[in-house]
C-alpha cells in the first residue's frame, strides 16, 4: 500500500469517529498548550527580569555585607559613611559611588498618606543607576552635605499624595519629619510584582538623622570598564575586610545577579515545562488507550483487510499513522491554543509571556513522538491479528 | 488419490495437463483450546482446478469453514501440504501469504463484511489498494465490476443504504475485482432470503461460467449442491465423499472414524443454528456419500449406511 493511501485511510478512520478523535486529541491539545504557555510565561518572566537588571545601569558593582546567596538571612550592616569614603578612595572617582540606607516609612501630605520605602542616597545615584526624572531636579552634593530635608518622589508616591496637585515645592512628612519635594521620578513600572515607583529618595545624611543611625546598607559602584570590574570588586572587599575584620562582604556584578536569577528562573521554567510535559504524557496514554479500543472495535475490519491482501505491515502502518495523526493534529491545535493564550496573558495580565521557537518545536516534536511511542503497541497488535480469528470477532 | 486431472474437468488442450489452482494433500488443522487440542481437519486431500464449480457440504462443525480458510490462505495447516497458486504455504511468510491471497483468492462471506461508512465502489476497490493500483484505476475497475454484478447504479451507496442481496453482490464484486483464480464462498446465501439467495447464487454461477474463476462454495442447500459440477462432503474433519473421485472415497478406510463415539461426532451438530435452505428431510437428494448433507440427526444415524 502506498504511503499517501495509508494517510488517507488513517484520516478517514479519524473522521469516521469524529467525537472520539476530538476527545482523544483534547488530552494532547491541553498538554501541548500548557507546555507552550508555561514555557512562554517562564521565558517572559526571565526576559523581563534580565531587562530590569540590565536597566539598572552598566558595569554595576554592588557591595553588601554578608554573602549573596539564596536563603541567606540579611546581615545588619556595619558600614558607615566613613567606609563609603574609603571605598571612594579605592575607586578613585566619587561620581562612581552610590549608597543606600533604606527603611519603610509613612509619607504624609495634608490628609493623604502612603506607606513607602524611604531611601537615603548620595547625589550620585542617577549617574550610577539609570534613573531619570519626570519633573524638578535631583539631590545635589550640597543637599547631602547639609542634610537638607528635600525629597524626590517615585511616580506612585507622587500620585498617591498629590493626585490633583503639582508636588514640586510641596511639603511631605516622612516619619513625621517635613521634607520639601524637589523632584519626581519618571515611572519604572512593576518588577516581579514589586512596584518600583513606590520609593522616596532623600539625602543619606538626612535619612540617618531621621532614623538616628550611622548605618549604610549597601554601596554601589559603577566600574570604569567591564574588564577590570571583578578586580575592582576584590579590592573594595579587601579594603572593607581590613576595616571590619568580623564581617564578610560581597561584591557582585550585574552579570552575577543575572546568572543567579537566570538559574532560578531557568529551573522554574523547567519545572513548569515538566509539569506540562506530564499532562502531555497523560494525553499520550489516552491516545494509546483509544488506539487499543479502536483496534478491538475494528478487529473485523482488520480481518477483512487481511483477507483481501493487506500485509501485517499495511495494517500496522495504518494504525500507527492514525495515532500519529491524532497527536500531531492535537499538537498543532495545542500550539495554536498555547500561543494564543500566551499572547492574551501577556497583553491582559501583569504576567509576562514570551513565545520561544524551541518550545513550539519541542511541543510539536514531543507530540509526534508520543503518537509513535503510544501508537506502536496498538499498531503491532493490529498487524499481528490472525485474520480468521479477526473475522470471527463480533 | 492425487490424480492431476479431475474427472469430468474441462481439460486445457495446449498442455493436456493442467496446473491445479489449489492442491491439498493430507491437510490437517488442530486448534489448541485451553491446552486441549481440537482436530477440526484430520487429513483432507483435494484438488481445485481452474474453472471448477465445487459445492462443499457437511453437517455443522464438520470443518467446512476451517477448510475454506486453509484453501484461501487465511490460515495455515498444522499438518500436510497445501499448495495455492503453485506456492507451498508452508514456505511462505505472513506478508507473502497476504500477497498470495490478494492475487489468487477471492472471498465471499456469509456476513458480507463490507466496510461501514464506505461506498460500494470503495469497498470493491479495497483489494486493489493493497496491490498499489492508482486511485483512478481502482475506481474504474471497481465500477466496472459493480456493473457486472448488476450494481452499476449503486456505486456511491453505503452498505447501510443497500439490501442484503445488494451487499452480497458488492462483496462478490470485491472478491472478483482482482481477477482471482479461485472464488471461495462460505454460505454466501446464508444471510439472505430464498429469492435473493437464488439470485446471488445465479450470479456466482454465471461469473464462474463466464470468467472461468473456480468457485468453491459451502452450502447447506441440497438443491444448490446438486447444481454444482462437483460435490465434496465432509464429516467430522474428513472428506467422506467427493463426486470427482467416487471410488477413492469408498476406498478410504473408515479408520478416521474408528473408535470415535457417536456422541462426540454429534456434539457440534447439536448446536442450534438457523436452518439455511432445505430442511433435514431430503436424505436422498444427491448421490453417494453426499446424501443429506444438511440433515443433522438423521444423517448421524444413517451415516454407516450412506458411506458404505
Ligand atoms: N478457533 C477455533 N478454536 C477451536 N476450535 C475451533 C475453532 N474454529 C473451529 N473450531 C472447531 O473446529 C470444528 C470445525 O469448525 P468449522 O467452523 O470448520 O465447521 P463448519 O463445518 O464450518 O460448521 P458450520 O456449518 O456450522 O459453519 C468445530 O468443531 C469447531 O468447534
Ligand atoms: Mg462454517
From TrEMBL, chain A:
Subcellular location: Cell membrane
Transmembrane segments: 21-42, 264-295, 316-345, 357-377
Predominant cellular place of this UniProt entry's protein: membrane
Domain MacB-like periplasmic core: 21-237
Source organism superkingdom: Bacteria
Membrane topology note: Multi-pass membrane protein
Pfam families attached to this UniProt entry: FtsX, MacB_PCD
Start and end residues of each ABC3 transporter permease C-terminal domain: 274-387
Molecular-function annotations in GO: ATP binding; transmembrane transporter activity
GO cellular component: plasma membrane
InterPro entries registered for this protein in UniProt: ABC3_permease_C, MacB_PCD, Macrolide_Exporter_MacB
Keywords: ATP-binding, Cell membrane, Membrane, Nucleotide-binding, Transmembrane, Transmembrane helix
Family per record: Belongs to the ABC-4 integral membrane protein family.
Name recorded for this polypeptide: Macrolide export ATP-binding/permease protein Ma cB 1/2
UniProtKB/TrEMBL annotation, chain B:
Ranges of residues in domain ABC transporter: 22-262
UniProt keyword Cell membrane present: no
Protein name: ABC transporter ATP-binding protein
Highest classification ranks of the organism: Bacteria, Bacillati, Actinomycetota, Actinomycetes, Micromonosporales
Keyword Transmembrane helix: no
InterPro entries xrefs: AAA+_ATPase, ABC_transporter-like_ATP-bd, ABC_transporter-like_CS, ABC_transpr_LolD-like, MacB-like_ATP-bd, P-loop_NTPase
GO molecular function, one term: transmembrane transporter activity
SUPFAM superfamilies in alphabetical order: P-loop containing nucleoside triphosphate hydrolases
UniProt cross-references to Pfam families, sorted A to Z: ABC_tran
Region annotation Disordered: where it falls in the sequence: 244-308
GO cellular component, one term: plasma membrane
Keywords: ATP-binding, Nucleotide-binding, Transport
Compositionally biased residues, Basic and acidic residues: 244-260, 297-308
Bias (Gly residues) ranges: 278-292
